[in-house]
Every structure is written in structure tokens, then in C-alpha cells.
Amino acid sequence: MYNLLNDLSIIEVSSFVASPTAGLYCAQLGAEVIRVDHKAGGLDYDRYMLTKEGRSLSWENLNRAKKSVALDLRSGEGRELCVELAAQTGQCITNLPEKSFLSHAAMKAAQPGNAPDMTSVRILGWHDGRQAMDFTVNAASGYPLMTGPEEWDMATAPPVNQVLPAWDFITGAYCAFALMAALRHRDTTGEGSEVRVPLGDVAIGTTANAGMMAEMLYRGSDRQRLGNAIWGAFGRDFRSKDGVRFMVAALTAKQWAGLVEAFGVATPIGQLEAKVGVKFADGDDPRFKHREALFEIFQTVAGSHDYKALEARMAASGCTFEKYRTAYEAANDPVLVADNPLFGPSPANPSGFEYPATRSFANLPAHEAGDPAPAPYLGQHSEEVLSERLGLSSGAIGKLVDAGTVALSDKDR
User: Which residue of 47, 56, 321, 384 has the smallest Cβ count within 10 Å?
Assistant: First the structure.
């Protein structure tokens, strides 16, 4: 938690991954992020995996450091309160449809004269209005059909989905950036913005930015499956004598020289160079084209040594490598977690389960990072926010609670 954005308040009306991620990143840099949900919880409130008490660990981590307001968003009065909160605040992140009650036009129309001109960021499915989610846009991107073992037949092999919802997280990060750009524009001109970010455009646009689209059009065909090899460079997984799998990468001359030194393969590498008429130190191209022969040389050495010995040699030679871990092993790895300043002490999580929590991914040496903040209980800040933002009295809020329009903390549900 940094305090770089402590003068910024954001209303977030969202669910699932991309939209809450945008708010989370802003909150971790100090913004006051007020998440508004339906009083029974949003669509992601009970998202798997649940603790035995029924608390979602996904929801808990994507909504860390935020405040929570719970309204009856199926009622006209609850929706009006939500729009008013966004209008008064001046900034909103949402993945509700454009034509929902929380349209940019509705928020802007409800703004009082002293509010900053409305700035909203809305996550959509596709640019043409079709619905989308991470796994469906990933299917459209082409990546699942180039993932998998090299020996699989391109015409009949099944797609392989990535389990990380990468497009959601990229979209969330991009939306946080887009919000900051829009706010900078407003600071300069006084003019607010309506920002729409289609998840599908993030996916297909990222493939274009990566050069993959140009590559396919240039070659006039699809890229072949490569298993765990790195496309266009030298890198792959290897297995040590004691059965440990590890990944190595050599994209630079220094990385390549270190790998050759660590594995002690200068002689067979030289022999291969003489045979095929190239110098592998010259760059990615010769190493990639002759990767199969190179892989055989390195695997022969890897298979004759235990991993600890290989690890020591690769570390001493400055190689770029990493052992494969299961997700459970990664969560318990001291280098990745316990000794990593990214993680702080477990806050008072609504689930009651104690575990390491992340600070901001950005490391600002001149600023105090602070400890991770907990996620709120649903509705924990309803009374506080309605009082401070809309000026409602405790009596007025009490009437809204009695009418079922506003819900308070579900801590003791």
C-alpha cells in the first residue's frame, strides 16, 4: 500500500476479474476505492474456491483495500443511490453494460455543479456488443491451438487453454492505466472522459502488439506447436538425473555463454557448429533453427546430474533458469513468498484464514510501502459512505436499511 493516489476516490461497480483488478491496483497505490454491490453480493461474491465458512478467496483477494457498499441494485431507489455516488465522486470503474442504469450519460446527468466532470472506465466484451470472457476471447486469439506437445498433429490436436485468466488481468491493468490517463487529461482541460475497453480488443490487440498477427500474415500459415520450447530463441524444459524439471532460457549472448559454461558443453557445441556451418553465439536464429540438436546436447548433461548440482553451476554462471513448481510448492517457497518484500503480514481477512497478502507490485524505494489491507465485509462501509458522500443522516440511512434498499456488514451472516 502506497499513498500516491490518496487524493483520489473511485466508485467501482463490477464483478469477476478484470474490473475488480483495475480497482485493486488503484487501491494498492492509495486510492479510496468504493465497491458497490447488490446487497446479496455481486455475481462473483461466492466464486470458487470457498472456505468452509462460505467466504470466497477469489473475492477476498481481488477486493483488498477497498470499501464496500451494499445496495438493492434491483430496485429503482438502490440504483439511483449508486448513480448518485458515482456522479458525486466523479470517477467510476464498471463492467456493467453500456445500456444499464449506470451509463456514462446517466452518471454525468446526475452530477452536481461542483463535481469534477465525469470520468468512467467501462469494460465490455467485444467492440460490436457481443459478450465475452477470458476463456472465450482466448479461444479467438489463436494461442490455444499453438499450445501443446510438438508431436501433436496440427489438424487434429485439441486446443489447450491456459488456466491463468491472462486477458482479464491485462485488461484490468490497462483499465487502471486508461483511468489515470483520462484523469490527467481532465486535470489539464477540465474535461471528463468516457473510456470503453473491450476485453476482446485487448486480446486481439495484444496479439498484434506482440507481432504474432504480422507473423501469421507474412508466413501465410499458422505457427507450429513447440511444446515447452521458446519460439524464436533458445529455451526449453529439461529433466535432471533425479527427475526435477527446470526451464532455461538464453536470449542474449551472455545468457548463452553462461549456459554453455554451466553445462560444460563447449566441445560438443563446437562440433555441431562445424557440422552445420553456424556460430550459435551469433544470435537467436541459428540457435532456434538447430534447437533439436542443441536440446539433445543439453538434455544429455542434465540427465547425468542431480538438480542441486546443476542449479549451483547455472547460478555460478549467471544463467537464466527456474525449477518447475506446483502451485502449492510456489505458495510455500521462501524465495518467492516468505522472503519476498512483495508480501506483507496477513491482514484481518473476512474469511478468517491467515495467509500472505500482496503489496503493490511497484516498488518505490523512496516511499513507505505499508502493509496489505484486508478486503471488506460486504456492506461494511455502507453507512459511512452514504453519510460522507451523499450527506445522508443516520436516520435517513436507517430508513433505507429498514426498507431493504441498503444493507450493512455481513460479518455475522
Answer: 384
Cα dihedral 246, 252, 256, 258 sign: negative
Give the pLDDT confidence of 338-387 residue by residue, as tens digits.
999 999 999 999 999 999 999 999 999 999 989 999 999 999 999 999 99
| Beta bridge mates, 218 | none
3-state secondary structure of 212: helix
What are 164-181's pLDDT values in tens digits?
999 999 999 999 999 999
Query: At CA 110, angle to CA 104 and CA 115, rounded to 5?
Result: 95
Residues 312, 329: Cα–Cα separation, whole Å: 20
168 is catalytic: yes
**CA distance linking residue 24 with residue 64, whole number of Å:** 7
Tell me the per-residue pLDDT of 184-210, one tens digit each, with 9 for 90 and over: 999 999 999 999 999 999 999 999 999
Whether the pTM exceeds 0.90: the reply is: yes
| Partners of 12 in beta bridges | 35, 93
E strand residue ranges, 55-99: 67-71, 91-94
Cell 504474432 belongs to 212
Contacts of 269 (CB under 8 A, 6+ apart): 260, 280, 294, 297
Q: Which of these, 166, 167, 133, 160, lies nearest to 145 by C-alpha position?
A: 160
